[in-house]
């Protein structure tokens, strides 16, 4: 039986499967016009929409959204602002000198004088506040005025601080005696522009020291 002749032996080239299919595929996908038309052929640069999920496709681009900043809640109407609260706390309490005159003399001045003179070594000091006549002949025609009256050594030493204007910032006077009639009425703290509790106490102690009634005197 004659041997079958090989295509290569006969000088012929066997048709390639690719060559046979290429025209058909090209004809099916080739555009029929000059306008660009989308084809169904996949390309290397076109991602599969189903593969764009970052949970399943590690190469998919991941996008992050910055967290939204919450705006501070609007302050309720009528609510006091923090600055206003701080200012209210810093408000100073009214000064003792702003009290009504009689309250100041009885509640502030008398106890402060009692303490200051006692600290100077006077053990039997008696103090009182009264509105009475000035025990000095000729003073204001004998009219009454508020006074701080102090005495010790069984009344041997006595002093009076006068407030004719019923105002600690107004006119003030002083007198003292040792078992006799009071001395001449003296002006008291007339050179001070503003009178305070401490100044009223200091001025009296200084005057009594000048009389040599306190301490080792």
Automatic annotation (TrEMBL):
Residues 49-66 have a biased composition (Low complexity). Signal peptide: none annotated. Residues 1-95 are annotated as: Disordered. Residues 67-95 have a biased composition (Basic and acidic residues). This is DUF2996 domain-containing protein. It comes from Calothrix parietina FACHB-288.
